[in-house]
Structure formats: structure tokens, C-alpha cells
Fold:
Amino acid sequence: MANRREWKGEEWQDFALQLVQRRHGAENVQRVPDTVKGDAGLEFFTTCGCLYQCYAPEEVSDVKKAASAMKAKAGRDLPKLERNRSVIESLLAGTKVHRWILLCPFLDDKDVITSVRARGVGIKTSNLPFLLPNFQALCHSQDDFQAEIEQLKSMSLGPPLSVISPTAQQVTGAGSTEIGTRIDEKLGRALGHRAQPAQIAAKRNEYVKAHLYRENALDQLRENHAVLWERAFEAIDAEEARLIAVGAISTLPGQQLQESMGRIEASLAEALPTISPGLRTRIALGTISDWLIRCPLDFPESAVS
Structure:
């Protein structure tokens, strides 16, 4: 699976710090806070002499625009080594620097490398007291930290979940297949003969949307948080087995849905305490949809008043 390209600034900075800590050892990495008078052009530095600056371009699909933004970022921040020389020298406290690294989610254009390298050569001529003779400026991406990413995934500390909501077109398309037909049949029995076709269709679309969202969320967990995915799968599978073996407490469709929803949410909360409540709720609702499609949850005609 390709590495995620689109990040918010603070989110990327937090994840990048985890990557750098895995590579250099957390005890060898110092984060530079920016609350008071900014960060002096550094996100964090290492005791072995690497300065890191993070940047996540807003543009992720247009290669030229993303490259231009990366080059501009380096153009703004590398000169800060000289402009903030006294602050940086104080922060480093004797540590000598041999690398300045712009760390981005992706790197598509080699012109970014050329630009960053050239600016590094330029700053080297300023004879800053904390720069070593072999000082170099580089641009790295997630591809350069693949081993660290895999380590984080194995610890369920991989990239933050970024679940893509299904589009209206995807919902409509899935709703017109056998998935939609099965949900319509279930809802028709659940709502009774007085239910209007438009009412059934609206509810069906919500269930289809929830089902697609759940599949996206579980795919993200499986790819980036293997341990959490296994826990989620076990919790959902156990609730499905209980439903099949014991059945729902109530025979009323509405109460069956509420009961199953509550049990799934409670199981997921116990299995995935670090996942946001909103995400757990959406996975639970998607699981109800999955059960409606595959028939573990059904509403016999006799249950409808």
C-alpha cells in the first residue's frame, strides 16, 4: 500500500517526530517548541547532528505545485540557520551539525533535491560555528523511513487513521446492487407495510454509506494498525456469533437495531480505547449494515406489528 500523501501540518509533524525517534532513538531527539518566539526554523534535532524541518504540502496531486511549495519552504527555512544563529547555537549546546533535512510526506520531483542541495551549499559558506565541514542539506520523504513505518505499524502506532467517506455516487452505485436490494427487503419488513418507498430508500442509503465507511476504516486498520484491526475483528466476530447463537432480546426491529448497535459500540470501546468514539460509532453502524446484508440480523414478518 502506498504511503499516505495528504496530511495536515501538525498531524504530519507529530508523525514525522515518531519516525525520527524510531531512527535515532527517542532519547537522542529534541523537539523544538514554537509557542514562544517560534521554533527558529527547526522542528527537532538529534544529538548526532541532524536538523529536521517538516513540511506537508497542501497540494498533493499536482507534482509541479507540490515541488514549488517544497522548494519555497526550504528557501524560507534554511536561511534561518544564519538569521537565528545565536538561538540555534544555544539550543545545540555544542552539538555540531552535519545534516539539515526537509522531511515531507512524499518526494516526486528531483528538482526539489537540486534546490535544497544548492541552498545547503550556500548556507555552508556562511561559516556558522555549529556547522561541520561535511554539512549537507537534503530532502527526505516517508519512502526513506519505510523500515520505521513498518515498526510503527507492528506496534499499532502507524499513521493516524484517515478514513475516506464514500461519495454520493459510490453510495448510489452500491445501493443499486444486491447490497441495496437486501437492505430494502430487511427495512421493508422492519418498518412495516405503512413505510413509504422514499423512507426506505433514504434509510437504505444511510446503511449503505455506513457499510462502505466501515470497510474503508477496517482496511485502514488492517494496513496501518494490525493489532487494532485484529482486536476490532475479534470484537465484531464475537458479537456476531452471540447474535446468531442467542438471538436478539427483543422481537421488535427497532429495539433489535438499538440493542445490537449498543453491544457493538461497547465491545469496540473495550477493544479499541484509543480510537475516537465517533469512529467506533461509525464502524458499529457499518457492522449493523453488514449484518443486514449478510443476514445475521433479520426481521421476520411476524415481528412487524
Q: What stands out?
A: Strands lie at 29-31, 44-46, 50-54, 97-103, 131-140. The chain has a mean pLDDT of 87.
